[in-house]
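Could you please consider the sequence and fold following this short note?
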Amino acid sequence: MAIVSRRAAAADRAFEAVKSFYFSSRYGERRGDATIADFTFGNPHEMPLDGLVAAIREAAVPLDENWFAYKSSEEAPQAFLAETVGRELGLPLEPSDVALTAGAFGAISLAFRLLLDARDEAIFNAPAWFCYEPMLLAADAVPREVALRAPRFDLDLEAIEAAIGPNTRLVIVNTPHNPTGRIYGRAELAGLAEVLERASRRIGRRVFLLSDEPYRRIRFDGRAFTSPAAVYPWTLVSYSYGKVLLAPGQRLGYLALSPLMPASDRQQLRDVMFASQMALGWCFPNAVMQYAVPQLEPLSIDVTALARRRDALSEALGRAGHGVLPPEGTFYLWARWSGDPVRQWEALADEGVFVMPGTLMKQPDYFRISLTASDAMVAQALPYLARRA
């Protein structure tokens, strides 16, 4: 007789491909081996930013007896983020619009608990970050995938509208998009807002939007960014510092409410924010990370170095006949295999070069390369990535 809850079992099944790849595949067997070229996950392969270490060290020095007491969303970082993020996004955020969380995982989990009842449906665009589905299943919600329009992986507004039914409560948009690197522009987002407004009237309940923006500051070639929160009032924004700082092990992020949301709706969400985070397992960042927010905010991964790696890898992949979609943001390259995906992935693995197979995102004809690999890894891998199968 099964003793595991149905939601835990469902989440496990949805995450099985990623779990197997990470722990028991050929990559799992060599993960952490200093001799491989690792282009799989968005992990650091060089020493951390100097400013990151200094900020955490300074914030760890206690200034009073309450320095390490229980911390919810503290007033000082809330006020700081309302001002700085509001200026960045062009939105009049208020401190109580911002809930500090343990990374974007915490922010997304919080959004699900705030908005979704059991069996409510949430739509996300595929290919997608592989954690949306298991997180929704663990929240007793129903995931609904809507395919992006290849080859550029644009939002398919007609398909999103067709997928919205009586039980739909949430649509998730990830911009810049993992894994494709697309940044969705204001016109496309305005079209989505029209779809959500029309659908909300049709089904007689408000459809909310979760804008997942952890790569917001990692953009190439001077591209602009528009947050869906500036276009559709019923938007919640999830953000993580783990990407821009390339420090995913230091959990810091936030969930922000669009200040364009009607005041009564916004206040209802504010009123239950603390209790929801507490019930999720005290889903707040630790004290040190909250104190460090003002020093961490201006820091950034070296986007110039990412662009240099992007260009070198794109050129090599093109010579091998792979179809590369030039990323507009994130630190990933999304490419289509030029031949048999399994054979080509295995051939790279034979040479100690590991890329993320698209099967992990239900796209077997594609693969993803993380640009957070070191320059030495790039140099090691280029001859093999450029080799025609």
Summary: The longest helix spans residues 186-203. The two ends are 49 Å apart (CA to CA).
